Every structure is written in structure tokens, then in C-alpha cells.
Amino acid sequence: MRRPSPLPQPPAREEEQTDAPTRGRRDARPSRDESTADAAAPAHASDPVADPARRPGSAPLGDAGDGETAPVIPLGGPLPLPGAEREPVDGTADAPASYVGFRDVWRASRARRKALRAEVRRFTVRQRRRRALWLGAAASVVILALATIGAAYSPLFAVERVVVVGAEQLDAAEISEALVGQVGTPLPLVDESAVKAELVAFPLVESYTLEARPPHDLVVRIVERTPIGLVETRAGYTLVDAAGVALSTLAQPSPGTPVLSITGGVDSDAFAAAGQVMRSLPEELRVQVTAVSATTPDDVTLSLGESNAQVVWGSAEESATKALVLARAMISRPPAGVISYDVSSPDAIVIR
Hints:
elongated
């Protein structure tokens, strides 16, 4: 019966080999079975790196006392916190070259931001140039406007002369003299209320407009009232316009100015119709009218010249057409041989 091979034995420790130098040759020389067992043993058994017992610089596990463990050598220390100074491991004053501190991180971040800003500026050059052009143009316009306004409100554009335009019945020099208080005032600061208060003293002024003519002229454009006739009152004969505004009062009627005989006075509808009729007449017909009468707005009657021919006008409607028809009729039939012209219906004029 074949004898089984013995189990592989662990390799002898160096201490045991040192302590037993007197062992026999037979014990120091492995048997065939032991050689076979050693060959079949794993490779890491003789590897000093894989075997902790054979690792250089480490103590044998078997030499540790009861309850004691083998010393552990740390491979590296903890990483330092950002901004903290790392203590040297070997006790020297200088830190390792591979150490990265908070200042290095901050400098790298600042360099990255600078590079990013440079790239942004490089890719937005055209946009910034366009924006600069627009801002420059806007600033120029604003500066020009401010300079213009400042010059306009300065004494450089003060009123030195008042020019009156449109005065026919009124004296232009008299109006200019009344507005002398505006001389020396900058054109944009002319007081319109003061001008109106001065022009109220001239009843013939129906309306007016102010026009600044730089650098020193103030132009006043006058629209005068058109007198339509004389109204008899207790004080005499008052010259009135189509709105019933009293322009002047005379003791006797002036030649060439018609006398108005209106029922209800200047505040009645009949007077408004008569005033509209007189304003619609052309100049060559208006100078021939010597009297105007009306009791209602629909029966306005005119008297012409020395012949005293009557013109039955009717209402103030279609006054322009009636005036044209009357002018043609007076050419074909002069007032000297006519008693009356009835133009109340302009499509069918009646002449007597």
C-alpha cells in the first residue's frame, strides 16, 4: 500500500534557521516530497511584496508580543484645507513643490476670468463700435438742442423791434408803441397775456397772432374787424361789426356807411343774419349799400345807392350764390331803372 505524500509545510523562518545551525544535513536538505510541495506552493508565498511577513522594513508577525499588533507606517498625510499652510513632513521649513494653496487657486481663477473677458471683448468689437457711434450721435443731438435752447432764452435773441402787419384802419405805429414793454425780453419768453391786455384797447382788432422772427423781431399780425353799418343809439350812431362789437361812436352818420334798422338790436337773430349777408357781399356791392333792414332772420332787405332800389335778400342761406346772381342782374338791369331785385330764390330771380 502506497504511503500518502505529506502535506506541504510552511517555509522555515529565518530566526529558526539562525537559531538551529547544527541541524543535520538531512534536515537542511528538502526531500523529494517537500520539493514537490514547494514547487506547488503559490508564487506569492516567496514574494516579499505580497507577503507582509517578508515586506522590507516590517517586523515579523511572529515576534509581536501577546496582544500587540505590528506597527503601521502611513503612506501619506491628510490634504490641507484651502488657505491653510501645510506643515512640512520631514521637519524642514519649505513645503513640497507639488503643494497647491489658496493663492494659487485664486490666481488661476483670476487669470481665467481675464482670458474670458478678453475673448468677450474680441468677439463684441463691432457691437461696441456701433453702440459708441449711436451714443456719440445721441450726445451730439442733445448737446446741440441744449445749446440752441440756452441761446434762445439768452439776451442774444431778445426783442428789439415790434413789427405790426395787417393794420389798415388802425395805426401800426400806435400799436407798436403800446407793445414797447416787450422790448428786451427773449423771444421765447414774450408774455402773450401782456400783449393781449394791450391790444384790448384797440376795438378794431378782431384777432392777432405773434410770430418770433430771430434774432430780434417780434411780428404781430392783426386781423381787423369789418364794420357793417351804423346803429342809432342815444349817444349817436355807433359803428358795429357783424358780431355787434361797437367800434366807434359818431354824432352823425358818415357817408358810405349803411344805417342798420334791425328789430331786436345787435343781440337778435335778425342782426346776426344781416351781418352775415353784409360780410358775404363783394366789395363793389358793399359800397353801394346805403341801408339794411330786417325784422326776422328771413327778411333781410338792402337799399342800393341814390336810386334807392331794394334788394329782397331773404335769409342768410346761400348768400354767396345770391351775391353772384345780384351782380349779374345789376349789369343787365342797372339799379337806376329798377325798383327791386328779389334774390330770395337765386334760381328764379325777380326784377321789377
